[in-house]
Specification:
about 130 residues, Rossmann fold, 5 helices, about 20% strand, globular
Length: about 130
């Protein structure tokens, strides 16, 4: 069975691009248009991996990561940040919150699939 990935992104166009790239790689995809909605969706979907934007209304992606890490079931679920922000300071905030990795937009679809595949292989039970 293919991995289930939750996309948390407020831009419908960007969600569509990410979804398309992941589905082409055989992944099952769920979507959330903001971080607050994602906190509920993540409980229903039980994703194997989460991809979240940083800049979203009401609750940013770094805060989402921090909150997700408080749920016992999601302490070890990989969370990738996909954003236009590329500063070292932003990446450090992401790591401190519990993000697994950081991908900068714009992204290459094949590279996104490669990163997702690598992260899921590392997380797979041995």
């Amino acid at each position: 069975m293919s991995a289930r990935i939750l996309i948390v992104e407020d831009s419908p166009t960007m969600r569509m691009l990410i979804r398309s790239a992941l589905e082409e790689g055989g992944y099952r995809v769920a979507e959330s248009e903001d971080a607050l909605q994602a906190l509920a969706v993540v409980q229903e979907v039980a994703p194997d991996l989460v991809i979240a934007d940083v800049n979203m209304p009401e609750l940013d992606g770094i805060s989402l990561v921090r909150r997700m890490r408080t749920f016992p079931a999601f302490r070890s679920v990989p969370i990738l940040i996909l954003t236009t922000e590329s500063s070292d300071e932003a990446k450090q905030r992401g790591r401190a919150a519990g993000a697994t990795g950081w991908i900068t937009k714009p992204f290459d679809p094949a590279q996104l699939r490669d990163v997702v595949g690598d992260v899921l292989r590392v997380q797979a039970p041995q």
